[in-house]
Every structure is written in C-alpha cells, then in structure tokens.
C-alpha cells in the first residue's frame, strides 16, 4: 500500500502524454478488398495507446481491454494515416486512452476513419499494478471526455460482472 501513497498528489496534464504518429499505407498493410487491414490498424492503435500510457504513468503498461473500436471509413494504398492518442480518464493503476485515426490528404486535411478506447494498466518493476498520476482537467472538452469515460468505466464493470 505504501507505493500508492508517494504519488497521490502527482498530476499530469492531458498534453503531457498527447502523442501523434503517422504511417503510409503500403502494400503489406492491404487486405483482400484493397483497404488497410483492420488488424494492422489495431496493432498501430495498440502501440500508440501503449506509448500514451507509458508517457502518463512513467513506466511500463499493458493493454487491459479494448472498450470500443469504431471503423468509420477505410484507408487505401499510399494514404497517409495519422493516429492521435490522449489520456481521457485515470483510475488507480489504469488509464483510458482515446485514439483517433485519420486519413490525411495531400493538402493536410484530416478525415476521421476510426476511434478507439483502450484501457491500459501501469506496472511497477515487479509487473504489479502501480498507481498512476491523477489527470489534470483543464478544458471543457477534457471534462466532457472524463465524464463520458466514467460512464464507459461503469459499463465495463457491469459487463465484467455479467460475464461478457
């Protein structure tokens, strides 16, 4: 319990772990219908969620769950794909990370193609869950995302209790 006491007052801003990563869709990323393979996108999203979680927690993290993954549009060969990740909510050792994925055209305009929410758990040097810094909410948008995350957290707990 002592390891939880040392970091109780530590807070981090959303901007401190905000991460953006860019890819070009190549032939190896294409599925049989000529679009970005969903599994490839999922791997990219999971990687980015891990980076965001590591930046917020200051240590290693694992993926505990994928709460939501919405494929809105596809990406195609030679598209520029941009992923933007941010922490939306923190518990004791867990963090909800939102990843928005866009296709960016040659003029720099981005069009959303996916949104995902991951739950990441911070681990200490013994691979046990460790306390994460509190999240400092600074904007109305961040507060709205926090409030929505609480609802998602409640639904996750309910689904777990019901066995799915």
Automatic annotation (TrEMBL):
Coiled coil: none annotated. GO terms for molecular function: long-chain fatty acyl-CoA hydrolase activity. GO terms for biological process: acyl-CoA metabolic process; fatty acid catabolic process. Residues 15-126 form the HotDog ACOT-type domain. GO terms for cellular component: cytosol. It comes from the Bacteria. InterPro entries: Cytosol_ACT (IPR040170), HOTDOG_ACOT (IPR033120), HotDog_dom_sf (IPR029069), Thioestr_dom (IPR006683). Pfam families: 4HBT (PF03061). Keywords: Hydrolase. The keyword Hydrolase applies. Transmembrane segments: none annotated. The keyword Hydrolase applies. PANTHER family: ACYL COENZYME A THIOESTER HYDROLASE, CYTOSOLIC ACYL COENZYME A THIOESTER HYDROLASE. Belongs to the acyl coenzyme A hydrolase family. This is Thioesterase superfamily protein.
């Amino acid at each position: 319990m002592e390891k939880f006491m040392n970091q109780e007052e530590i807070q981090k801003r959303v901007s401190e772990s905000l991460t953006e990563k860019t890819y070009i869709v190549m032939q190896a990323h294409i599925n049989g219908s000529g679009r970005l393979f969903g599994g490839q996108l999922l791997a990219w999203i999971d990687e980015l969620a891990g980076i965001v979680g590591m930046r917020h927690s200051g240590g290693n993290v694992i993926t505990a769950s994928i709460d939501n993954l919405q494929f809105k549009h596809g990406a195609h060969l030679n598209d520029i794909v941009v992923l933007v990740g941010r922490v939306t909510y923190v518990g004791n050792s867990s963090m909800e990370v939102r990843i928005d994925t866009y296709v960016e055209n040659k003029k720099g305009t981005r069009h959303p193609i996916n949104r995902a929410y991951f739950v990441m758990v911070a681990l200490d040097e013994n691979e046990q869950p460790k306390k994460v810094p509190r999240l400092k909410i600074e904007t109305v948008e961040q507060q709205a995302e926090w409030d929505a995350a609480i609802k998602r957290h409640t639904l996750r707990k309910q689904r777990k209790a019901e066995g799915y």
